[in-house]
Amino acid sequence: MRGIMAVVLPAVLVVTSLGAVPAGAQSPPQGDIAKRFFGAWRYVGTSIDGKPRPGRGVEPKGIIYYDPSGAMAAQIAPDRRVPMAGPQPTADEAKASLADYVAYFGTYTIDERAGTITYHRQASVQPGELTDYVRNYEFAGDRLILRPVGTKQEVVWERFK
Q1: pTM for the structure as a whole
Q2: What is d(CA 49, CA 52) in angstroms, rounded to the nearest whole number?
């Protein structure tokens, strides 16, 4: 637990210090479903059509965190190290390090009727527009299963204990 707090606490401080939840932007998630999201979850894996997603290695690592105020942060790191030729990474080394790395933060809202959670991203390492991500959700024991709407992809997280 101490190890996870070393990761979660700095992430939470970054999210809140960067203003992920501007005053009056949205009301905090409430209700029994919202409470099930609160806290930190460990990345288990991603599948597409029931097959493991390629490109992240054997044991990728990741964390997603939901704060009761409505802030969230997510990171998934591939299971690989990119060696550096010198004290600073070259452009190719930096690009290789970020390949298949996912990281973003922002706020979230839950639509219990639709069974979806929406991430209102405020920053991301992925290039492009900061569009909202909408995911169908399902809880299975200590696992949270997220399915991006309109895809055959499934992302599985397990609650840290």
Answers
A1: 0.80
A2: 8
